[in-house]
Amino acid sequence: MQLTVAIVGAAKGLKGEVRLEIRTDDPEKRLAVGNTLETEPSEFGPLTVARTRTYKGSTYALFEEVGNRNAAEELKGVRLVIESDEDEPEADAWYPHELVGLEVLDPEGYELGTVSGIEHGVAQDLLVVREPDGRLTRVPFVSQIVTDVDLDDHCVVVDAPPGLFSEEDIIVVEGED
Questions:
Q1: Are residues 22 and 47 both part of a single domain?
Q2: Nearest CA-CA partner of 146 in 176, 97, 102, 177
Q3: Which positions fall inside the RimM N-terminal domain (predicted)?
């Protein structure tokens, strides 16, 4: 199974350096100098890491096969991928492709929607849920809100705070006549 290590962003400078949007929990290992990464689409790779650096919270890389800014600009949006070398994933870790399509339920079992994607954030990832009415809702992927992920039952349980989903019951307090 291929896993995304990073997505190539904008070119920086004239020598072919690019900004990377990191998607791995171990960038030092995956992006070590000398490592060769496959690409998606495949016609842009493989790419061999020549140098990496961090500047103002962003990671930048230079690849042996990319010698100038023009070549670097062509890589924008290319995914750097590896074959998974993990025998057993962590108990509370899931890959995005495993979550997309799962039914989203509230703690009582009522349908809230379907997972349509994952957005990677700075503080935490967000589950993108398509509600039955077609609206997209972004749910913080934290254990206090996403209380259970059950791949066998093809569902995710979300204990959402009031107002997060559009179809939640609204309590109206009426005054006395």
A1: yes
A2: 102
A3: 5-85
